[in-house]
Automatic annotation (TrEMBL):
Keywords carried by this UniProt record: Flavoprotein, FMN, Prenyltransferase, Transferase
Catalytic activity, as annotated: dimethylallyl phosphate + FMNH2 = prenylated FMNH2 + phosphate
Biological function: Flavin prenyltransferase that catalyzes the synthesis of the prenylated FMN cofactor (prenyl-FMN) for 4-hydroxy-3-polyprenylbenzoic acid decarboxylase UbiD. The prenyltransferase is metal-independent and links a dimethylallyl moiety from dimethylallyl monophosphate (DMAP) to the flavin N5 and C6 atoms of FMN.
Binding site for dimethylallyl phosphate: Y156, K172
Positions in coiled-coil regions: none
Highest rank taxon of the organism: Bacteria
Coiled coil is among the record's keywords: no
EC nos: 2.5.1.129
Keyword check for S-adenosyl-L-methionine: no
The protein's name: Flavin prenyltransferase UbiX
Flavoprotein domain segment(s): 4-168
Pfam entry (one): Flavoprotein
């Protein structure tokens, strides 16, 4: 049986613990495989935000590609995927996607995902948001298949610690790919 491919990219914005949790959740699904692309800035941020090494994170992925590998599979629409998740997604990456400036594999894979009308999930990270950020996000959100899911804290699921919040956010980011996280608590109403 062929596995369903999800391209997972990470940029230098804050939120690398969420990337780690997303990779763990994908790994727990036997019918899915992850294709990880980490920017150099993401690798630097990883050391600031976690105790994980780059090697430990790449070991969580099924395949690992460098952002400079512009000719790799995800750069072509004929490379079948379920879509792409960028977590965290910097405003620089948002601007590159918005303008179609595909000068590395992360941006090219996002460009291909949009043109093939596959799900593109962007865990956009910045605060406060400038009018330029808001314009780029707004225009991207109007494209078919693009979902802007900022990693935001929620409290209805009664998180006990930061790991609960990370898990909840990762589960929300993977929902568009039909990955059901076991511990994800949906709002069921009052």
């Amino acid at each position: 049986m062929d596995k369903k491919r999800i391209i997972v990219a990470a940029t230098g914005a804050s939120g690398l613990p969420i990337l780690v949790q997303c990779l763990k959740l994908i790994r727990g699904q036997s019918q899915y495989e992850s294709w990880l692309i980490m920017s150099e800035s993401a690798k630097i941020t990883l050391a600031q935000e976690t105790d994980y090494t780059v090697h430990e994170v790449t070991d969580l992925a099924d395949y690992v590609l460098g952002q400079e590998q512009i000719g790799a599979g995800p750069a072509s629409g004929s490379f079948q995927t379920e879509g792409m998740l960028i977590v965290p997604c910097s405003m620089k990456t948002i601007a590159g996607i918005h303008s179609g400036y595909a000068d590395n594999l992360i941006l090219r894979a996002a460009d291909v995902t949009i043109k093939e009308q596959r799900p593109l999930v962007l865990a956009a990270r910045e605060t406060p948001l400038s009018p330029i950020h808001l314009r780029n996000l707004s225009e991207l959100s109007m494209l078919s298949g693009v979902r802007i899911i900022p990693p935001m804290m929620t409290f209805y699921h009664r998180p006990e610690d930061i790991q609960d919040m990370i898990y909840h956010t990762a589960a929300k980011l993977l929902e568009p790919f039909r990955i059901e996280a076991k511990e994800y608590r949906r709002w069921m109403g009052i």
